Amino acid sequence: MSSDKPNTLEKIERAYEKRKGYQKRYSFLNPSVFIPWQERERVFLHFLNKNYFRKKDISEISFLEVGCGTGANILQFIRYGFTPEKITAN
């Protein structure tokens, strides 16, 4: 049963073949990825320092992380010193 129409597997293989080279686009070795991430982190830490860190011990702060996706933000919060048990991920 052969046909000229590509089967589903061939369509998927072609779609993935087109993606080759895109890995560099999202790599942290790419300055256009790393610099905005670093700037976001700088602004966020400034916000936390101004509004929370001076008022409470960081281990007492609990919060809800809405739309946590892969959990990258949650890992960052833990690196900042937040207690994992006080982080609620949605």
Distance between the termini: 48 Å
Task: Work out the radius of gyration.
Answer: 21 Å
Outline the biggest β-sheet: 2 strands, parallel
- The overall number of domains is 2
Can you give the mean pLDDT?
Answer: 82
Encode the helix/strand succession as letters.
HHEHE
Question: In percent, how much strand structure appears in the residues?
Answer: 5-15%
Account of the protein in words:
The chain has 3 helices and 2 strands, in the order ααβαβ. It folds into 2 domains: 8-55, no CATH class; 57-90, no CATH class. A two-stranded parallel sheet has the order 1-2. With 90 residues, it is mainly alpha-helical.
How are the elements arranged and paired?
Elements: H1 8-19, H2 31-53, E1 63-65, H3 72-80, E2 87-89
Parallel strand pairs: 1-2
Gist?
The chain is mostly helical and 90 residues long.
Features:
90 residues; mainly alpha; 3 helices; 2 strands; 49% helix
